[in-house]
Amino acid sequence: MKRRIALALLAILVVFIAAGAYRMAWNSADVVDSRTEIEMIRGVAEHGLPYLYNGPVARFHELQARWNIRQGDRVWGAYPPLLAYVAWPFFAIANVAGVSSMIWLLLIPFVIGVYALADRLFRDPIWSVVAAYLAFFATPIPATAANVNAFMLCETLVVWMLYLTARSLESERRGKLLAFGAGLLAGLALGAHLLALPMGVGAGIVLARPDREPRPMRDHRDWRAIVDAWRPTRASMSRAAFMLAGTLLVLAPIAALNDARFHSMNPLSYGPCVWQSCAATGIDRQSAGAMLADSMPSVAWIAATIVGLWYFQRDRLGLGVTIFLSLATLLSSAALIDHTWQLVKIAWAYVVDVSPLHVKELDLPPDRVGLRFADFLVRSPLQSTPLLLLVPFVRAESAREKRLISLLATPSVLLFLVCALRANEPPAYALGFPYLYLRYTVPAVAPLVILATSSLRSLAWKRGHAYLIVVAAIGMTLACHGRPDTALWRRLVLLYGTLFVAILAAWLLHRARRFGDRRRIEHATHAIAAAIALGVACTIGVTNPAMSGGRDLNDARLAGVAKDLPDRFAIVGFSPEIDIPLSLRGSRDVEYMDLYEVDPQNGWKHFRSMIDIWTGEGRPVYALWPKKIEIPSPWPEIEFREIDSKEKVFLVEKR
């Protein structure tokens, strides 16, 4: 009976998502990432490979815009290729709108995967469907499905990779086959986005752990017991090897494609950084080698300090010596202080709060409360989903549950550690140029929500508590609904009210478990209900409307620009303004020059040359300028004639 109720509730959620696909059928790209994905999808539709043409790119650097790599006359998209191949049938049916709907529909296998994965841990269908609902209604994950990018595809594949890994851990007969399947999905997830790497590595580490129960530790320094708990056996190593084999099988064709795109057989690469903006944006420091080289001294110092404090936790003299040596080492190097402080700040931003960072690309209000992008607050995972602070309180009742909890926690922790290592880049790019939420953390959100849900099961939940959550969620959503995030009370609630409720719920849950009396359990239940309701309000009342509103605005801008543009034309402008009309690369014959990438040695000399080339081909040339900038024609023989005063579109023609 419980299973039927759970499946009925899951079916309702699936229908709700499917019904929303029509609403999510946007036609526009909103950022340079989406423009690149659209170009890759059209390339696959036309050539079977993710490349297009953009004029004489070998002669003019500005024709090779960001996230495009030139090989000969072809311009290849630099992103992992899986989304382009998955999306091209939908692109063939309904162009960019079909791709937008397809990405939204990926939420269906995602929530089913969350339900299936949670059910491996809970063995309780009701709590499993609760986890699925929380993942959809109380996290930023639906917002990742509101853009033309590969995050939603990556998240879905990661969830099912973890599910097959869990099945492999529990199956004696088919463990290797299931591990191989998990490896295939891990490889596909990497083919969607490289953020899947720490998630896949974390799952592989858990697979390689021994099946046997480790012997009890005599004390916290019993190294033999610690080593014994992690020393792989032949069976566990075999499972991990099968997972690795599945991953490598998928990565082989990606390596071949990268050889064609980048002249590199590395399947885990975006290619060389060849754009003018590389140094300014930190793109040239995004490689694993650069991140490790910059952070290794700080990581080594932090690790040595933690190990020393743990080892001497019951030895006052040893503890004092450890603290003295740690501080002496830190204070002896200004570089170590700077790198460690930056690492701590980025790690804090990725978990707790972005506001303490100085991010020049984000808006800091006069009262200095919160950082905003396009009038919307940038929020951390805890500020988006306060329930996540309950993850440390998860309990394992058996060895089986302990292994599954480890499977959910290890990849998630590894992802956050990798994100923190991005501290070698400028803050905006270290955070993945944040917009409302930190998108680089979303692959870990589903397993963390399952763990947080697991920590709730020991409380005495009643039907009245469910009603309380629904009523509170509706009330908070209505209170928070609206844009932009300008009112001080709104910013205080979204930034610090969320953290306060999260801390309160965690503290009351700790007290309830420690003392176990009815009053404390009831207080913890009410606080957790408030945390859930606030998470729903943040998602349904803030993040989703802001994302949808932004996409609607971009579609309206695209429609306004598109009516003045023919089926075959060239356009010149600055990113990000130029990215929206470049959505038309999906359906029209468009060549373009991104002046954000202008060659500093030649200025606009190449622009002038391209005017002659394009007009000689019979291709009308248009310019799209930022609204706050007046740019007259620098050439007396060339006229910039305004044809759209609202969007500042000019027809560029000879007098």
How would you describe the overall organization of this protein?
By secondary structure, this protein is of the alpha+beta class. It is 59% helix and 7% strand. The chain contains 23 helices and ten strands. The protein has helices spanning 2-20, 32-47, 82-105, 107-122, 125-137, 141-144, 151-170, 175-192, 196-208, 223-230, 234-262, 278-281, 288-311, 316-331, 334-351, 381-384, 399-420, 427-430, 445-454, 463-480, 488-515, 518-562, 605-616, and strands at residues 51-53, 68-71, 74-77, 372-373, 376-377, 568-573, 589-594, 621-624, 638-644, 649-654. The strands form three sheets. A five-stranded mixed sheet has the order 7-6-8-10-9, with helices on one face. The chain has a three-stranded antiparallel sheet with strand order 1-3-2. Strand 4 (372-373) and strand 5 (376-377) form a beta hairpin. Helix 5 (125-137) crosses helix 19 (445-454). The protein is globular, with a radius of gyration of 26 Å. The N and C termini lie far apart (78 Å). The mean pLDDT is 91.
Percent range for β-strand residues: 5-15%
Biggest sheet overview:
5 strands, mixed
Poorly predicted runs: none
Strand order of the largest sheet: 7-6-8-10-9
From the alpha-carbon coordinates, what is the Rg to the nearest angstrom? Answer: 26 Å
* End-to-end gap: 78 Å
Oligomer: single chain
Q: Can you count the beta strands?
A: 10
What would you call the shape?
A: globular
What class, by secondary structure content?
Answer: alpha+beta
Task: Give the mean pLDDT.
Answer: 91
**Percent in helix:** 55-70%
Instruction: Count helical runs.
Output: 23
